[in-house]
Design brief:
It is a single chain. Helix content is about 35%, strand content about 10%. It is built from 18 helices and 14 strands.
């Protein structure tokens, strides 16, 4: 650090988006977007201009077309970093929680999300092995693409069924269960050589506002926070988590100032650093979100975040303004060089732990101790340095780890334990595929998080047919008229609102046909409480292909349901509820 200029030091604090699939040759529209926002045309130029500490990948920024492309992008970005400024490697990051939030799609392995893993853990008597295995696989594949920092797992305890931003991204409503699963995933990711991130501190699970569009208010008392929200973060710290992400929420019981937690010294330094003893990197949630921009201007927010105790400044809306503002605060004495160096040291130590200084953290290097399906290949820090510029080496690393048969099979095995049978009053399930039952599948077809799987009704129908049934998927507009004559109708629901809605109307009309209706809640397990009782009810927690395959196996009895609700469904089912088939 002693040889780094102020601009180079400050650059290490920033993690920015950049547009384009290539570091040096983006599509013209992406080059123009970079020029308009950053004054440069390519991601490589952006890294050089601002001496960036990291880049975050997004699908909407066109960074994540294919695993091979991502690996090449990572390798080229690392070359740009090595050739500029202090030559510090980048920490490349992504939001790959799996489930409802995922940026990299097929042919990479897509795994069940947090609440699905919570359901599996309860059904397995509290075992967190599936969650740890899922994180190990996810980390192994990210590392092969040159991504050494994942913004996962979510450590929020979801106690508000109407939470608009967390929901199934949480492992559940029981703080102890969530804590155990968070610790398991931290060990899984970091065992694969990828920095894990416990988010969103001090806890975003009981908020009625999405911090992307507003500033949520957390009304928990200090005692409630200690009982409900603190345990998962404490468990993450004890598990050695590399990074904690702050939340853009106001928490008066922890800081009465009205500042969001990201900008709160009592929260970041007083509680996270001093009470919990966290010594790793604190990253802000994205600084372009409305929740952090309500009270202060974009020029003040980065400075205030650093004064609060944050280390990494994630995705400011105006990178140039943010960079200049921190430099100005350094020049004026509002921020000291010692304070900046304190954060940069943590960032450099993190990069060292993840192998970035010995070549192991770049695309084309051995992907950590996870190996294919965690087979025990050399550790990230012990991997030999490789020439990342060789396309063949980058491609070979991807082919050896990403979407390999062992990982895909493991994803199905993990998902098989997640589906929860909520109701089966007339023992409609399992259907007997040997009788070739005629089934109709309909309902909501949300786009998958990555745009690479689904639509879920078609996937469910296809999997049911593959298991021996005669299943057809139809849109809701045609399903009611087509229902008579079928053995059952499976209706997929997605975030059913309170009161009357098109989804409720569809279920009511299908029930009126007299054909048995199987409700499949493909995202929020709270849906059944907002709908009339059906002949059978299932919760899958995720609508990607792996969960739809698992649901089909439960419907036909190829797999017995073992998942248990990790959250209560008010007025309908208690936490831990889940039915099994009779022997």
């Amino acid at each position: 650090m002693t040889r780094m200029s102020p601009a180079e030091l400050v650059g290490q604090l920033f993690v920015s988006r950049a547009y384009g699939h290539s570091a040096t040759d983006p599509d013209p529209a992406d080059a123009e977007q970079n020029l308009a926002l950053f004054g440069v045309r390519t991601a490589a130029e952006l890294v050089s201009r601002y001496h960036l500490g990291g880049i975050v990948y997004f699908g909407w920024a066109h960074n994540t077309r294919t695993p091979h492309q991502i690996a090449e992008l990572s390798a080229d970005l690392q070359r740009a970093a090595a050739a500029s400024g202090a030559g510090i490697p980048l920490l490349l990051s992504i939001d790959q929680e799996h489930g409802a939030v995922a940026r990299v799609g097929k042919p990479a392995t897509l795994l069940p999300g947090a609440m699905a893993l919570g359901a599996a853990a309860l059904g397995a008597g509290g075992s967190t092995a599936g969650a740890r295995r899922a994180a190990r696989i996810a980390g192994t594949e990210l590392a092969a693409m040159g991504i050494r920092h994942d913004y996962a797992p979510v450590a929020d305890v979801n106690v508000d069924p109407a939470n608009p931003v967390i929901g199934v991204r949480s492992f559940g409503a029981d703080p102890r269960a969530v804590a155990a699963l968070v610790a398991a995933q931290v060990r899984g990711y970091q065992g694969a050589g990828v920095a894990a991130t416990a988010k969103h501190f001090p806890g975003h699970g009981d908020t009625g506002t999405d911090s992307h569009v507003g500033l949520p208010l957390m009304r928990h008392t200090r005692a409630q926070w200690e009982e409900l929200d603190e345990p998962p973060f404490r468990a993450a710290v004890r598990a050695g988590v590399d990074v904690v992400m702050t939340a853009h929420i106001v928490f008066p019981a922890l800081d009465p100032s009205g500042d969001p937690a990201t900008l709160s010294r009592p929260v970041v330094t007083g509680i996270l650093r001093e009470r919990l003893g966290f010594r790793g990197v604190v990253v802000t949630d994205a600084l372009d979100m409305a929740g952090v921009r309500q009270k202060y201007g974009d020029d003040r927010i980065p400075v205030l975040a650093l004064k609060a105790g944050c280390d990494q400044l994630l995705n400011p809306p105006d990178l140039g303004l943010a960079h200049r503002s921190v430099l100005a605060a350094l020049d004026s004495g509002e921020l000291t060089r010692a304070r900046i160096e304190e954060s940069v040291l943590r960032i450099l130590e993190l990069k060292g732990r993840r192998g970035l200084f010995d070549g192991a953290g770049a695309a084309g290097a051995t992907a950590g101790t996870g190996g294919p399906a965690g087979t025990g290949s050399p550790s990230a820090t012990g991997s030999p340095s490789v020439t990342t510029g060789a396309n063949s080496a980058v491609a070979a690393a991807v082919d050896a780890a990403v979407g390999i048969p062992a990982h895909l099979a493991a994803a199905d095995e993990i998902a098989a334990r997640t589906t929860t049978l909520l109701a089966n009053p007339v023992r409609l399930l399992p259907v007997d595929p040997s009788s070739r039952p005629l089934l109709l599948v309909t309902g909501t077809d949300p786009a998958s998080p990555t745009g690479t799987t689904g639509p879920p009704t078609s996937v469910l129908a296809r999997e049911l047919s593959a298991l021996g049934c005669r299943a057809t998927a139809l849109p809701p507009a045609r399903a009611v008229a087509a229902a008579p004559g079928h053995a059952a109708v499976l209706v997929c629901t997605y975030n059913v609102p309170e009161g009357q809605s098109p989804q409720r109307e569809l279920v009511e009309e299908l029930l009126a046909t007299g054909v048995p209706v199987v409700l499949v809640a493909i995202r929020n397990p709270y849906d059944p409480a907002r709908l009339p009782q059906c002949a059978a009810e299932l919760a899958t927690y995720t609508w990607t292909d792996v969960e739809m395959r698992a649901a089909a196996r439960v419907v036909t009895g190829a797999v017995r349901p073992t998942g248990r609700l990790p959250v209560p469904v008010p007025g309908r089912y208690p936490l831990g509820h889940g039915l099994a088939y009779a022997p």
